[in-house]
Design brief:
Structural class: alpha+beta
Largest sheet: 7 strands, mixed
Radius of gyration: 26 Å
Strand content: 5-15%
């Protein structure tokens, strides 16, 4: 099935937006600010806007600026991907983000953080969740300074991470990796003022790398490497670090070259389609843009020095996005990060450790809802779901019960039904059905709800219902939000005997470098599908528990990496000088007297 990349629509819309600033950016519009005043408030606050829900322990002013920036960026990304963005049939679920005031808190979310990890998106059955880091206070930038003011490094990483995940969440593009990274870095330099925005600025880490090369240091990659399946090849140690930043920089200038020209934007679909169909990215680059891979380094180097432009254009008309804020009590705030970590599909050891901690800490404050929600989630996922029922049932009876509580109650009842004898499952199944139906009303596009309703259908009826299958497919079409949802969508299409759409998703999963486990499953399932599968076999696959701990999208601190690159280059230069002096000593610099200690 061909990837639906239309050829010119996005170019026309993007050009319209850049020239006149007239294309709407899905603005949230003015919203009232609601503060839940409580004695002894926590530094943690909640901010909700049109597309995101942000939990943060950063200063409120910075959170407000972050949300406004992300809403503006989201609208801009929709313009640039209009030609190939997936259009869902229903309401789009909001993206959950955690904006951390301390980078070390990333270690509490995911074990094995890379040495320079600065932002993370986790892709789990409960949906995708982003963890971003505030590195410095966010300052407003006057319109006339947008093109020249120093770029906030932390906000660049936030923008890069959001743009990369946007591509995964809303499009079918999974390669080449140079395009994904170039796209993310291109939008890392976007900044918004009161009435204008700038597009095309060089992100701080990328700029520092180009300055490093301009000083005469050697490079490690050419565009045959950059566009290949393994850009860093067999490089290791210090050269691998340098090559990693070089890959980001070369990907950025390639994306700037394509996105910075209306004529080249019109040919982007040709390039992406060719790669999707299995074409060599270097050949696709030449066919779409007339750029030979052997000439790409020199051509793009000249483009960076002579032709790369920073565009300053008017923002679309309308009031700026304004989030709705809620504050937390001091006790409630202490549980928010633990709850977010539980939703980020932790490894078993971490999940069980959180259960033990929350049993003690949340158990000591039974009237704090945030603590009980986190404890209930830990019990459902890592302990005894029956122990979670009393609080969840009480919370679900409230008129304002959110989709999160209702989904968790449904999952608890499903787990208890699966453990019960067939004749004793009825009450649990009825309770799950009722709570999941309410969750669907609260958040109709949520993939996690669709997955739970599929589990309910399989357990209650022995086979997937058409409604459950349609729910999974609708959720997938709305947002490509998780590996488990993608897998369920493949199986749903297969059960409905729609092999072309199933194979389209399988192809995406096989080429998705973020999640090797799901890619391996997709390749194996494609072979089974080619050999022939019965409906019973497909339903049996639906019943299998999802394996793996979710996939991760890490954004790396390029400035920190460049400090290492510069340090290692200095050591290498110094060693070269020492070696030269050792082999060819200069008599004029010989010591005439031996040094003495005073």
């Amino acid at each position: 099935m061909a990837l639906p990349f239309k050829r010119t629509a996005a170019a026309v819309v993007a050009a319209c937006a850049l020239v006149g600033g007239t294309c709407a950016a899905d603005d949230a519009g003015p919203q009232s600010i609601v503060v839940t005043g409580q004695r002894g408030t926590s530094p943690w606050i909640r901010a909700e806007s049109a597309h995101v829900v942000v939990l943060s322990d950063a200063p409120r002013e910075d959170v407000g600026r972050l949300v406004e920036h992300l809403e503006r960026l989201d609208g801009l990304l929709r313009v640039y991907t209009d030609d190939y963005r997936a259009a869902g049939p229903g309401a789009e679920p909001k993206l959950n983000l955690v904006y951390l005031n301390d980078v070390r808190d990333l270690d509490r979310v995911a074990a094995g953080r890379p040495a320079d990890g600065i932002a993370l998106f986790r892709d789990c059955a409960d949906g995708a969740q982003g963890f971003l880091v505030r590195t410095a206070p966010l300052a407003a930038i006057a319109d006339d300074r947008l093109a020249k003011a120093p770029l906030d490094e932390g906000l660049s990483y936030v923008s890069e991470a959001y743009a990369r995940h946007f591509l995964y969440r809303h499009t079918d593009v999974r390669g080449p990796s140079a395009w994904v990274e170039g796209f993310a870095n291109y939008f890392a330099g976007v900044r918004f003022g009161a009435k204008q925005m700038v597009i095309g600025r060089t992100p701080p880490g990328v700029g520092r790398y180009f300055a490093f090369l301009d000083q005469g240091h050697r490079y490690n990659l050419d565009y045959d490497d950059v566009l290949g399946p393994n850009p860093l090849g067999d490089l290791g140690g210090a050269r691998a670090v340098a090559a990693s930043v070089e890959f980001e920089a070369r990907s950025w200038i390639l994306a700037h070259y394509i996105l910075g020209s209306s004529a080249r934007r019109q040919r982007l679909g040709t390039f992406l389609n060719a790669v999707y169909k299995g074409g060599n990215p270097a050949a696709a680059l030449h066919d779409a843009f007339g750029l030979k891979v052997d000439d790409a380094s020199s051509t793009l180097w000249r483009y960076r020095l002579q032709a790369a432009e920073v565009l300053r254009v008017d923002l679309p008309p309308g009031a700026p996005p304004e989030p709705v804020f809620s504050t937390m009590s001091a006790t409630s705030g202490s549980f928010l990060l633990a709850d977010a970590a539980l939703k980020a599909c932790p490894a078993r050891a971490q999940g069980e450790a959180l259960l033990r901690t929350l049993t003690a800490d949340a158990g000591a404050v039974p009237n704090v809802d945030a603590g009980q929600l986190a404890l209930s989630r830990a019990r459902v996922d890592w302990g005894d779901p029956a122990a979670a029922l009393p609080w969840l049932q009480g919370a679900a009876r409230r008129a304002d019960a959110g989709a999160d509580v209702l989904l968790l109650l449904g999952r608890a009842n499903l787990k208890l039904a699966a453990r019960a004898a067939p004749g004793a499952r009825g009450p649990y199944l009825d309770a799950a059905r009722a709570s999941l139906a309410r969750a669907r009303e609260r958040d109709p596009g949520a993939g996690a709800v669709a997955l739970a309703q599929l589990d309910l259908s399989l357990l209650a009826d022995g086979a997937p219902s058409r409604a459950a299958l349609d729910g999974v497919i609708a959720a997938w079409r709305t947002t490509r939000d998780s590996g488990p949802l993608a897998r369920a969508a493949v199986l749903a299409y297969c059960y409905l005997v729609d092999a072309p759409r199933a194979e389209h998703i399988l192809h995406m999963l096989v080429t998705d470098r973020r999640d090797p486990a799901t890619a391996a499953w997709a390749a194996q399932f494609q072979r089974r599908l080619d050999a022939g599968l019965t409906l019973a076999a497909i339903a049996a696959d639906m019943r299998l528990a999802q394996e793996g701990g979710g996939s991760s999208e890490w954004t790396l601190d390029q400035i920190s990496m460049m400090q290492d690159v510069e340090y290692n280059a200095g050591l290498e230069d110094a060693q070269g000088i020492i070696n030269q002096l050792t082999q060819n000593p200069d008599p004029a610099k010989a010591l005439t007297n031996a040094p003495v200690r005073r």
